[in-house]
DNA sequence: AAACCGTGGGG
DNA sequence: TCCCCAAGGTT
């Protein structure tokens, strides 16, 4: 190791923090460096809630959900007192719905222990919905612990700085070790957020803005002229297609027939219109004869929705239907529909049958 | 440990 | 249009 390498990592961390002080993003859940310097402390509840929402989810998508949640449930105790269904409804559209189920389970646990979050990585890691990343993020941001926070941004920044040829996810161990050597003891939370801000705004996956980067003199990948090649990742498997049919039954007063999905698995605990099973592509027309009950079904259209590991083609049928809801089903009136726990794929299906039905009305 | 689990935006 | 992927966790 060359002599100057000995100070490389601390120097990088110092430059990154200097950049963060001047260029950090203002985010609803963030306590900025100036406020921290004045002695203000982040609210662990807000840090936790934001970190759960931000798992595999963009900052822009999270903002409105975060504001709605903290407005309605300002504390972990308030969230613990909420009904499961209300939380699922409020989470609808954000995706990865097990996060909402774990959110409630975690709030219940924390509330039952005096409403105080654990202040160590290990303690946080034991809570539902909190894995290695989230435990480190909360420990460093909310409790000033020198934890190594490694998310997708950090993996990209580090793999470029050190031009790591090992593909992800195999390189995770190596990356974590490097981050552990860089975390400054005095500002671990800011260091974590600075690395993530750099990855989100400068060291982006494509066309990184290296000319604006505070670490351009430190970056092995930039020196080699190929930062965009990192991180190296394994090729992804092909996405299969499944097919099925969705049935939008409409009562004379405009109510739509709905039911609740099972507690676990895809879209668990969320609300749906009746559908057939979603089977592997059959290369054929799904017949209205597969409807859960007989009616004058007419074809309203077709939607395609891409999930994480498969694409779904749904034939959408529409029919009038009178009488009480069949077992396991319920009617949702027009003014209630927008507030139901409908995942995006189900809103698409309903919109295909009844344009505008799931949009929230004004007033 | 490989599979499963949503969604929307950017290039 | 299509592909990538975002402050990952659970089983």
CATH architecture of the largest domain: Orthogonal Bundle
What class would the helix/strand composition place it in? alpha+beta
Give a count of the beta strands, DSSP E runs of length 2 or more: 7
Q: Biggest sheet, in brief? A: 4 strands, mixed
Strand order of the largest sheet: 4-1-6-5
Order of helices and strands: HHHHHHHHHHHHHEEEEEEEHH
Q: What global shape is seen?
A: globular
Distance linking N and C termini: 67 Å
Q: How would you describe the oligomerization state of the chains in this entry?
A: single chain
Instruction: State the share of residues found in helices, binned by percent.
Output: 25-40%
Instruction: Give the total of domains.
Output: 2
Enzyme class: hydrolase
Protein name: Adenine DNA glycosylase
GO molecular function, one term: hydrolase activity, acting on glycosyl bonds
Family: Belongs to the Nth/MutY family.
């Amino acid at each position: 190791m060359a002599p100057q390498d000995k100070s490389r990592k601390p120097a990088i961390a110092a430059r990154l923090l200097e950049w963060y002080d001047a260029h950090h993003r203002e985010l609803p859940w963030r306590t900025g460096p100036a406020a921290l310097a004045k002695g203000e402390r982040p609210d662990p509840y807000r840090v936790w809630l934001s970190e759960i929402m931000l798992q595999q989810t963009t900052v822009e998508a999270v903002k409105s959900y975060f504001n709605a949640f903290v407005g309605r449930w300002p504390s972990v105790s308030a969230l613990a007192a909420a009904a499961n269904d209300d939380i699922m409804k409020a989470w609808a559209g954000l995706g990865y719905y097990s996060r909402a189920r774990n959110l409630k389970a975690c709030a219940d646990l924390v509330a039952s222990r005096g409403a105080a979050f654990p202040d160590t990585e290990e303690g946080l890691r034991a809570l539902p919905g909190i894995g290695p990343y989230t435990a480190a993020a909360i420990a460093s941001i909310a409790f000033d612990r020198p934890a190594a926070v490694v998310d997708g941004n950090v993996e990209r920044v580090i793999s470029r700085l050190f031009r790591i040829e090992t593909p992800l996810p195999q390189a995770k161990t190596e990356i974590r070790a490097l981050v552990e050597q860089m975390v400054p003891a005095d500002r671990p939370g800011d260091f974590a957020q600075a690395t993530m801000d750099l990855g989100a705004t400068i060291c982006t996956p494509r066309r990184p803005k290296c000319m604006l980067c505070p670490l351009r003199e430190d970056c092995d990948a930039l020196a080699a002229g190929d930062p965009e090649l990192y991180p190296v990742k394994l090729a992804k498997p092909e996405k299969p297609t499944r097919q099925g049919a969705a049935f939008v039954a409409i009562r004379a007063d405009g109510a739509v027939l709905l039911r609740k999905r099972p507690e676990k698995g895809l879209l668990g605990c969320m609300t749906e219109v009746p559908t057939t099973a979603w089977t592997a592509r059959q290369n054929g027309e799904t017949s209205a004869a597969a409807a859960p009950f007989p009616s004058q079904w007419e074809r309203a259209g077709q939607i395609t929705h891409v999930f994480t590991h498969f694409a779904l083609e749904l034939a959408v049928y529409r029919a009038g239907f009178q009488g009480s809801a069949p077992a396991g089903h319920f009617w949702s009136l027009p003014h209630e529909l927008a507030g139901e726990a409908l995942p995006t794929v189900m809103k698409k299906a309903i919109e295909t049958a009844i344009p505008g039905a799931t949009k929230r009305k004004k007033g």
